[in-house]
Each structure stands twice: as structure tokens, then as C-alpha cells.
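Hi F.,

I've been meaning to write this up properly since the lab meeting, where we talked about keeping a consistent format for the predictions we share between groups. The idea is simple: the sequence comes first, exactly as it goes in, then the C-alpha cells exactly as they come out, then a line or two of notes. No screenshots and no reformatting. I'm using this chain as the first example so we have something concrete to point to.
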Amino acid sequence: MCLSVVATETSTLTVVGVPAVAYGGALTFLQITLGYLVGRVIVSLYFLPRYYAGKLKTAYAFLGDRYGDTMQGAASVTFLGTRLLADGVRLFATAIPLKVIADTAGLEMTYVQIILIIGVVTAVYTLVGGIKAVVWMDVVQMLLYVGGALVAIFFLLGDVPPGWWQTVVEAGKTNLIDFGFDHSFGRWFTMPYTFGTAVIAGAIFSMASHGTDQLIVQRLLACRDEQDSRKAVIGSAIIVMVQFALFLGVGLLLWAHYDGAAVEALGLQRSDEVFPKYIIEGLPAGLSGLILAGIVAAAMSSLSSSLNALASSSVNDLYERIADRSLDAEWGLLVSRGLTLFWGAVFIGFASLFQDSNNPVVELGLSIASFTYGGLLGAFLLGLWHERTRQLDALVAFVVSIGAMVLIIFGVWHSPSDGWLFVLNPTDATIQQANLRTIGWPWYTAIGTAINLVVGSLSALRH
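Output, unedited:
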């Protein structure tokens, strides 16, 4: 289950996205895993006992028991939307190496065509196998892509020029810890990979992703008991730390192998295509095929997990609540399978939306999830901490926090000369001339949580 959690949360975003982060930057991305560890320890000690005490089917059943059906439905619908966007990025990430293969082979395939094939195949095996198939496929698929990274490192070490490490160090690529003290306080919040941001904001993000997201909570509740669940969630943080370090190492070796060449100079459209390019051109045919199979498997593990979680949340949090009755086992299975196919089709559509983005896919996927994680985590904490809050208080706080985050993410910018500004949809020229920067994505969840708690607490004062 621990390996299934890791495969679900990282998958293809790690395989192609994390090497791209190191290729274009340094190792400071690894700091975020320290916050992940802190957040998951809190989840294991504070959230899991409450889940197991209530014998809840989904993460949002807690909100239903605490506040009512409307709050549970709102949280579940938000989860559905977030998963579609965040895992749409993951599905798109898988199409990147496959498109590189197709281009190399002279096949004219678009991202949409590749996404369609992967989506259909994954939906079929998820529909047939259920959560047990999803979890065990996760384990096999994770071993495939991690093994592929180890093989790539072995061959890259033989390809890089002598003295490559010294070159990498002199270029500042090995910087691991960045406290951000050489920047202003306002600028500090725009940097996603400073130490303070990693530990504080990363911990809050991890509390939301592993304590309130049905995609992960579903796995933790499927463990034999609370103790096993605790081992799985804390162990996943340690494995993620090692896994991120592994793929960042791949990025450094790729930078040395290509002599620090710009992405455009390599004939690529995105930095996420660098590792797939090496797999195809730098590895023996059999090994490159195995690693590419691992990348596809990684994406399928993530997508199958999402499809299963979306189906279960749709049935338990929405369908049964709207119908005001529990479904018998046979009819419930049929409805769940139908919803699996439905969500598979929707995933394909959402994944096709991201082909024009230039951000590394790992950052894109994490930042999209952060839009609503703050509202979800805030709703849970409000229910746990504030006994006076009622359903209306929770709903108002939930809606306000998500709406505020949309405005903050798209409209709040920081300028070195003018400080914080609110500018909706600035042009590229304006961004470059004023050196505008947005808030670092790890802070999104923390800000959304704070807004939710403040608004909910103030609303409760009227009782």
C-alpha cells in the first residue's frame, strides 16, 4: 500500500518532470520532501485515528457526518474537479515521451491521439479489476519506472565527459538548501523552493493531499488496520524523498551529457522532453523500450487510481446522498463501473487542455491541486477544531477560500520595485518589464487553509 501511495502521487510527473527541474535549475526541489515528511506524520497521528474511529467510506464522509449532506457533496464535487485537472496533467505527461518516440519513428501522431489510446486502455482494466487491481498494478508499475531510472543513471555515468561533476558544481546545479535570506521578505514568498517554504508550506500541502484527498485516503483506509495505515503514509514520505533525489540526479547527468544545452538547441519543445530524448537516443533498444514501458505504466497507475477514487466518491458521496438510500452490492458495482467509463472519457478531454503549457509538468500538476487543497484541508480542520461551526459556516468558508485562491493565483504578483500588486492577465511584456512573479505554488494550500479557518470562525460568531 505504501508503494501504491508513492506511485499514485508521483508517477509520470516524477519520471519526466523532476529531471526537467534539475536540468533547468538545481537540487533545491528536494527540500519540499522535508515538508512532506512533517505533513504525513501529522496525518498519521491526527487524521487517521479519526477516520478509523468513524469507519468512514470516503474522506468526505467525515464532513457529511460533521456538517451534513450539502457540505459532503460540495467537498466531493471539488475533489472531482481537482482530480480531473491535476491528473489530466499526469495523463498529458505520459504523452510527451510517446510523442518523442512517434516523431523519431516518423509517425505523425498528436498528443490528443496518444492520450486517447492510454485513457481507453487504463479505463478498461480499472473497470474490470477494481481497487485491488489498481493497488497491485501501482506496485509493479512503480518498480518499473524506478528501475528504469537506475538503468539510465548507469548508462549516463558512462556517457558524461570526465570532470562532469566539477562542471555541474561550478554551474551551481548542486545547490540543495536555499534559505532565501538574500532576498526581500516579499520576494521570499514567490520562491517555491526555499527552506522555509518547503518545510512549512510543503507540510500543509502534504496534510491536504494525504489527509483529505480521496485518491490517497482511499488507500489508507484499505489497509488492515490503523497501524498499517500509519506505516504506509509515513513510509511513503521517505520513499518519495529517495525517489525525487534519484530523478534529480538523472537531471544533473542529462545536463552534463548535453553540455548544458538549451532545450531549443536540442530540437525540443519542452524541458520535459529531455529525458525521453536520451532514453530513445542514448540507451540500447531493449532497455529504452523497457523504460518507456515503465513511463507508460506509471501514468496508467496514476490514472487508474484516480478513476477508481472518482467512481467511489461519486457513488458514496453523491449518488447515494441524492438517492437517499444505500445501493445493494450488485447495483452499486454496476453504477461504479459505468462512472469509471464516464470519468475515463472526461479525463481524456481534460488532458488535452495542457499541451500548450510551457511549465515543467511536475510543477503544473502540483500547483493545480493546490487551487482547492486549502479549502478542503480548511474544512476538515474547521470541523475538527471549531465545535460551534455549522454547515452554513463551513460552506461559506469553503466557497470563499476557493474563490479567493483563484483570484490570488491568477491576479496577485510581486514586483521588486512596487511590492505586491493585483493584476489580472498581464501581458508577457508587462511581466518581463516589471519582473513580476507570482506566489510560489507550495504556499497556495497554506493560504487557502488560513482563509477557510478565518472565515469559518468569524461566521460561527453569529451563533
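Notes:
The chain has a mean pLDDT of 83.
The radius of gyration is 22 Å.

If this format works for you, I'll send the rest the same way.

G.
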